[in-house]
Structure formats: structure tokens, C-alpha cells
């Protein structure tokens, strides 16, 4: 594989037998002669099957876009093409040329196009997808069309074109910051339902005001894709509520082959009606689901909804990896205790990433949380984000005691920034974690607390009791000087200290 940063460097290489090339030309500028040199290089690459190319935003204009794309078209054996094309030409002309040349690249199986932040509009979208209809061998398609000025009409055209490809198994499309609306989301769902062979779907439609009806109709289309194994949906800032989320969950629950699921609902108003939040429980029918990521930050979630989430998660018996972000909500200690109590029933969990930043859970909430986490016997990897949760000495002592006594925990990441931990709490944290018989990797972020330099030194010195610890990340914000770091390296017998 060849990776170069300029056309001259590319031209000086022996390229005739290369099968894989990456060109990072983000610093390059082109006149007609330089573009012709690039095209001449392409003509020598008769065996090329993989090409990844990034172009400077000001590098391509109306005069050389056609030359550039014609050169790529001549790579007749090309199977995998990644184009990060920041077009500086007139948008309709550039997209028209791109579409015209793509339709002749019959051997393409993987296509990755980044056309974000260019106002290609509905007409440009139509030109693009018409060309894709002729690329019937494409199996993996990635389209980045963020901020492209596409409305619901353009969205309908895009997905009608995509669904003509019956060999497509993986689709990633980024439509953030367009004007999709409810009707656009509905059209997406209708067309997705025709992709019966699709196994991987990544759909980013943040900032598009699709609302409850749009998210429901999107789900109706997704549930028709019975072959779906991986689903990633990013739906931030779309003005939907519990009702829409629960209807989507009901649809996803019917995708019986689902193994990996990411749902990002951040910054939507999921109001505190616990009787209308059935998202997680709807997923219980996904017997193959083993990896779940839920982004629910800034969703107005209170303690009742948190308990409801926990109850639903406890029904996902085969879950092995869980990422749950509930930061910037209104959960109190009762809610987090109920959540953790249900999480303790997920005995197959191997990895847990939990973010509770800026929730008022206090010492009692942290104690309840970690005492239940200790019960998850198969857990090996744990990340807890407890920034600004009103945590003090009592809570941190019990946290360290509970996690230090976990028999299988290998890697631990703790974000404890912005709490009320004093020297006494820091001493207990280091001492109890140092007693762990399994912990090998510790990442600790504990800035903006009430620890003195003496307290920090004691805290880290107490880790000397650890028999298994091989790597420690103490973060720059912890303000540990180099002398202390050197002492820690010697005292803890670490292979890595950062």
C-alpha cells in the first residue's frame, strides 16, 4: 500500500504494480497542468483496486473537475473508492460530472463519497443517485451529505436511487443539518423497506425536525429489513418525545437478527411519563442483541425514567457490551439505585460504559450504583463518568471498596472531575483500588476536587499495593509533577504511566 501527500511524490513512485493507494492532497493546489500530471499517474496504475483520495477545498474548479473524474474512471479494476471531494466548482456541474463518471465504474463494490457542506440541493442529489443506479455491483455504500441543502424531495430521490441496488449489504449515510422533516423521514422508511438484503445500516439525521410521526414511519421501514445485523441511528435535535421513541423501539424489536445497536436520541425532550417509555423493553425480543449503545444525554430524564430504562435492560439477557449515556439529566440517587439494581441482573455483561455526569446522585447514589455493579461477575471493562455528581469522601470510599473487591475487573476508567473529594477520600480511593487482585489498567481523572498535593501523592502511592496493575493514566488535569510520576513508576512497577 502506498500513502503520499503530493502529486510530485506520487509521480516519483513505482506505481504500475500497486493495488492500493492513499492520496492525502489536502494541502495541494491544482492548475490544469498539475491535474493532468495526476491523471497521467492514474493511467499507469493498471492494477489498482483500492483508491482513497482527499482534495483541498480550493483545488478543483469547473475547468479540471471533468479531467480529474475522467482519470479515475479509467481505473477499470477499481473495486474500492473513497473520495473526500470538497468541490469548489459550481455544485450542479461538479455533481453531474461525478455522477456521469461513476456510472461507468462497473467493478466498484465499495464506494465512500464525502460531499458534506456543499449545497448540492435536490437537483444535485438526483444527478448523483441516477448514476448509482448503474453501479449494480456496489455492496458497501457510504454517502456523507451533511449540510448539503437537501429537502424532503431530494431525500426521496436519493433513497429511491439507492434502493435500486439489490446487492447492497452495507449503507452509511449522513444527512445532518438538511431539511428532511417528517415527510423526508417517512420517505426514507418507505425506501429502506425495499433493501431486504441489507445487513448494516448507519443513518445520521441529526438536526432535521422529523418529530414523532417521522421517527415512527422511519421505524416502520426498518422493521421490514429482516436481515439487519447492525443498526446505528443518530437522531439528535429532532423534536420527538417518548411516544415516538417507544414506537421506534417496537419496530426495531422486530429485527430478530440484530446484534449491534446504537440509538442516539440526545437533546430531545423525553418527558417524565414513565408509562410511555417502552423503548428498552421493546428490544427484549432481539435475542441476538449483544452490543447496545444508548445516547440519552440532555433528554429531561428523571429518576422514574431511569428506573424504567434499567428494567428494560435487565430483559436483554445476552447483552455483553453496554454504553449508556445519561449525562445532563435530572436523575437523583433513588433513580440511579434502581437503574443499577436492574443492571446487576445483566450477568453476561463484559463491558459497561456509564455516563451520569451532572446528575444529582450524591454519595448515596454512587454507593448504590457501585454496590450493584460489583454483582456483575463477568464484568471486565468498566468506565464510569461521575463528573459533577456531588460526590464526597463517603461515596468515593465505598466506590473504591466495591470496585476494588470485584474479582474479574481488568480495566477501570473513572471520571471524577468537579466533586467534593478531599484528601481522606483520595487516600481511600488509592488504598482500596490498590487491593484489587485483578485490576491491570486504571485511568483516573480527578481534577477540580478538594485534594491537596499531599493528598494526591498519598492517593497514588497507595496504589503500590496492587499486584496486577501494569498501566496507569492519571491525566494532565490531575497536576501530578514529574518527580511524583518517577516515584510512581518505580514504586508501582508499571510498564506504562501517562
TrEMBL record:
The keyword Kinase applies. PANTHER family: RAN GTPASE-ACTIVATING PROTEIN 1 (PTHR24113:SF12). One of its GO terms (cellular component) is nucleus. The lineage of its organism: Eukaryota, Sar, Alveolata, Ciliophora, Intramacronucleata. Gene3D superfamilies: Ribonuclease Inhibitor (3.80.10.10). This is Kinase domain protein. Keywords: GTPase activation, Kinase, Leucine-rich repeat, Repeat, Transferase. InterPro entries: Leu-rich_rpt, LRR_dom_sf, RanGap.
Amino acid at each position: 500500500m502506498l500513502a503520499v501527500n503530493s502529486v510530485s511524490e506520487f509521480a516519483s513512485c513505482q506505481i504500475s504494480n500497486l493495488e492500493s493507494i492513499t492520496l492525502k492532497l489536502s494541502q495541494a493546489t491544482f492548475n490544469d497542468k498539475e491535474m493532468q500530471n495526476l491523471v497521467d499517474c492514474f493511467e499507469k496504475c493498471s492494477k489498482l483496486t483500492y483508491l482513497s483520495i482527499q482534495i483541498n477545498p480550493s483545488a478543483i474548479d469547473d475547468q479540471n473537475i471533468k479531467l480529474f473524474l475522467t482519470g479515475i474512471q479509467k481505473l477499470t479494476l477499481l473495486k474500492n473508492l473513497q473520495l473526500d471531494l470538497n468541490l469548489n466548482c459550481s455544485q450542479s456541474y461538479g455533481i453531474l460530472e461525478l455522477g456521469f463518471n461513476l456510472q461507468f465504474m462497473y467493478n466498484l463494490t465499495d464506494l465512500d463519497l464525502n460531499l458534506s457542506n456543499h449545497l448540492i440541493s435536490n437537483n444535485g442529489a438526483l444527478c448523483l443517485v441516477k448514476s448509482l443506479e448503474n453501479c449494480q455491483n456496489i455492496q458497501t455504500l457510504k454517502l456523507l451529505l451533511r449540510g448539503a441543502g437537501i429537502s424532503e424531495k431530494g431525500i426521496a430521490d436519493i433513497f429511491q436511487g439507492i434502493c435500486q441496488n439489490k446487492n447492497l449489504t452495507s449503507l452509511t449515510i449522513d444527512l445532518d443539518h438538511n431539511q428532511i422533516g417528517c415527510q423526508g423521514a417517512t420517505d426514507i422508511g418507505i425506501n429502506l423497506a425495499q433493501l431486504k438484503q441489507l445487513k448494516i445500516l448507519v443513518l445520521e439525521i441529526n438536526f432535521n425536525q422529523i418529530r414523532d410521526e417521522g421517527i415512527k414511519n422511519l421505524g416502520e421501514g426498518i422493521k421490514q429489513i429482516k436481515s439487519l445485523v447492525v443498526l446505528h441511528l443518530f437522531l439528535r435535535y429532532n423534536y420527538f418525545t417518548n411516544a415516538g421513541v417507544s414506537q421506534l423501539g417496537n419496530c426495531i424489536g422486530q429485527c430478530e437478527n440484530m446484534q449491534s445497536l446504537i440509538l442516539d436520541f440526545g437533546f430531545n425532550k423525553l418527558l417524565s411519563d414513565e408509562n410511555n417509555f417502552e423503548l428498552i423493553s421493546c428490544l427484549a425480543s432481539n435475542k441476538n442483541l449483544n452490543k447496545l449503545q444508548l445516547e440519552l444525554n440532555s433528554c429531561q430524564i428523571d429518576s422514574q425514567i431511569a428506573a424504567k430504562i434499567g428494567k428494560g435492560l435487565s430483559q436483554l439477557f445476552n447483552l455483553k457490551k453496554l454504553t449508556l449515556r445519561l449525562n445532563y439529566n435530572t436523575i437523583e440517587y433513588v433513580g440511579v439505585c434502581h437503574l443499577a439494581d436492574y443492571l446487576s441482573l445483566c450477568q453476561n455483561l463484559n463491558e459497561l460504559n456509564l455516563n451520569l455526569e451532572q446528575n444529582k446522585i450524591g454519595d448515596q447514589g454512587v454507593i448504590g450504583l457501585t454496590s450493584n455493579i460489583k454483582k456483575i461477575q463477568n464484568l471486565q471493562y468498566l468506565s464510569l463518568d461521575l463528573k459533577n455528581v456531588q460526590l464526597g469522601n463517603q461515596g468515593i470510599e465505598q466506590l473504591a471498596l466495591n470496585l476494588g473487591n470485584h474479582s474479574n475487573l481488568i480495566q477501570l476508567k473513572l471520571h471524577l472531575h468537579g466533586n467534593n473529594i478531599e484528601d481522606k477520600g483520595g487516600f481511600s480511593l488509592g488504598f482500596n483500588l490498590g487491593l484489587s487482585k485483578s485490576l491491570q489498567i486504571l485511568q483516573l481523572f480527578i481534577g477540580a476536587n478538594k485534594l491537596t498535593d499531599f493528598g494526591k501523592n498519598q492517593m497514588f502511592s497507595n496504589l503500590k499495593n496492587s499486584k496486577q496493575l501494569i498501566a496507569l493514566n492519571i491525566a494532565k488535569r490531575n497536576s501530578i509533577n514529574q518527580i511524583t510520576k518517577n516515584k510512581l513508576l518505580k514504586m508501582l512497577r508499571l510498564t506504562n504511566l501517562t
